[in-house]
Amino acid sequence: MAAQATRSLPLETNAVRILHTDRIDRARSGELPKSELHHLADTFKLMGDPNRLKLLMALKDGEMCVCDLAAFIGITESAVSHQLRRLKDARLVRPRREGQILFYQLDDACVVELMTIAVGHLRGAAQPHEPPA
Amino acid sequence: MAAQATRSLPLETNAVRILHTDRIDRARSGELPKSELHHLADTFKLMGDPNRLKLLMALKDGEMCVCDLAAFIGITESAVSHQLRRLKDARLVRPRREGQILFYQLDDACVVELMTIAVGHLRGAAQPHEPPA
DNA sequence: TGATTATCTGAACAGATGTTCATATATTTA
DNA sequence: TAAATATATGAACATCTGTTCAGATAATCA
Hints:
Chain A is mainly α. Chain A has helices at residues 21-29, 34-47, 50-59, 66-73, 77-89, 109-122; strands spanning 64-65, 93-98, 101-106.
């Protein structure tokens, strides 16, 4: 079926064109609260940096300490510490102290799930999206 | 069990300390190819911007055109177009032309899965991570 | 064809981001 | 307590990013 234009009139310069108000309303009704949306974006953003992602991937198979991670990735321990703090604040990783050493591990199973699904997406092993009826 | 330090000797300034070579080796063995890791990070990074995430969330329930999305989010159509191009390049969205109008939809089911899992993570409904035996 | 609508594109700029360096804190050991 | 180890923190800076603006391209209609 062809989509129907809700409004299509001559408009002033810089006017906001609203073609399908029903779709905009539908989007609004399924909208997340602003703060939750921003937290969601922050979570993805944290996983969107190659070095942070490398940290998370490394922890997939077991806990590691700061200087192990620094050696593995090839940046300073300070940089690793900075990033681990952000990952910890977002509850993506969690530290466990053993003497002077802090061993970091993934906080919950979601983190691995997210990485697994995203890898699947990259490799093209995914079904086309079907919007709800 | 207590973790054993592989090496713990006095080191020169700026020397790389390697405490647990076995863990570093384990991480290396499970490492993604460099290009794949970067593509993975790019995917998350795209989802890590509030406005792009809002675009994806809006498309969750059905396709929308550029100016609908611009009105919904509250940025210019140009900005939406720029972002949609990036999302399209990453195969997160896909356009369908109907006359002059381009309707965008989510490309595959992974996108919704990623958002759903991440929301679950935020809301704390997740099991602790258990590394493989 | 020329006018209109819808979307795209490139350049430019303000603001965000990740790293390093120097230093501080915490824990263990002598 | 003093020294050594492991990690954390704040400031500074170069780089990256998202937006807007102006103009280009694509499709429809008179």
